Amino acid sequence: MPGMRTWTEADITDQTGRTVLVTGANSGLGLRTSAVLAAKGARVLIACRDAERGARALRAVSALATTEPELISLDLADLDSVRAAAIRVEEVTGGSLDVLVNNAGLMGAPQGRTKDGFELQFGTNYLGHAVLTWLLLPALRRGKDARVVTLSSLAAAGARVDFTDPNFERRRYNPALAYGQSKIANQIFALELDRRLRAAGDDVISVAAHPGYTATNLNSTMARAQGNPLVRAAVAGVTFLGDVLLAQGVRTGALPTLVAATAAGVNGGDYIGPRHLRGLRGSPAVVPPLRPALDRENGRKLWALTAELTGVTPDPA
Question: I need a surface site. Which of 30, 121, 142, 285 has the fewest CB within 10 A?
Fold first, then answer.
């Protein structure tokens, strides 16, 4: 079981013959996850919104790959793009996918809306991934030892989903609250998905993971997103100090995702994160899910809300 000893990339078994889709694979944790899995033999589908950045990531991963990776155009803030990406994945894989890594995300973004009118962080980080997962479950059922890995965050601690106003239409917008809501939603969804897969008798498992405090471009992006110059400078200063004093590198931060995607002994409903400093950093281990994610009523409510907002039929229904 992961966490009983120090787990490293060297523990990843040969991934030849497995096909993995990683969202947000053009930088940070997604790029590292894609590169490691490609180097271990997996066929990696690099899903990202920006074509130019995606092309750069494709070249970087190709240099390490034993099986040529492919680029998938995906804008999680546009459900039409999510649907088109799911169709494209079915086409290029022959309808069989082994691992879906729901990694992409925005952090601390200023108030905005997705193409479909959802609050930007909730719509991108959570709703886009939920719909992508539902649409790709038929392909995952045809995969071998298939897994859905959904990234949560330390920011989910203390957060909640406001089921009456998830898109900040009535309450005052707060970028940190919106980010926390999106990330606890990801964790609730991951566990509810696994419950429903088990109830349906499916072999696919759903696992949640978080990277701890990892120095990625999301930290600086959050600082730049602050509208008030004084707040922006303060956030930038705190972020810089945190990155220097507490943060771990992307190589270590990607390990929980890699455990969830590849390790033997991982069970559906597990939550994988760093084992030290209250989850801030360290080698990966199975850690307790947050209480809202363990609440089955939260899972049922989020499942129904997601279907209502997106108009997509849940899977398993």
Answer: 142
Q: Which two tokens stand for residue 276?
A: 């030290």
The dihedrals phi and psi of 248, each to the nearest 5 degrees, come to -100, 165
CB of 16 within 8 A of CB of 66? yes
- The alpha carbon torsion through 192, 178, 211, 257 (nearest 10 deg) reads 40
pTM of the model: 0.90
282 membership: H or E segment, kind and range: strand 281-286
Quick check: is 213 catalytic?
Answer: no
User: What Rg do the C-alpha atoms of the chain give, in angstroms?
Assistant: 18
Dihedral sign of CA atoms 231, 185, 243, 56 in order: negative
User: Residues 149-181: pLDDT tens digits?
Assistant: 999 999 999 999 999 999 999 999 999 999 999
Query: How distant, in Å, are the alpha carbons of 48, 90, 93 from that of 185?
Result: 21, 26, 29
CA torsion angle for 187, 191, 193, 199 (degrees, to 10)? -170
Place of tokens 């193409």: 115
Q: Which of 126, 173, 179, 271 is catalytic?
A: 179
What is the CB neighbour count within 10 angstroms for residue 191?
Answer: 26
What are the pLDDT digits (tens) for 263-293?
Answer: 999 999 999 999 855 557 688 999 999 999 9
**pLDDT (tens digit, 9 = 90+) per residue, 85-94?**
999 999 999 9
Structure token pair of residue 196: 């429903």
Cα distances (angstroms) measured from residue 69 to each of 30, 40, 145, 168, 263: 14, 12, 20, 38, 21
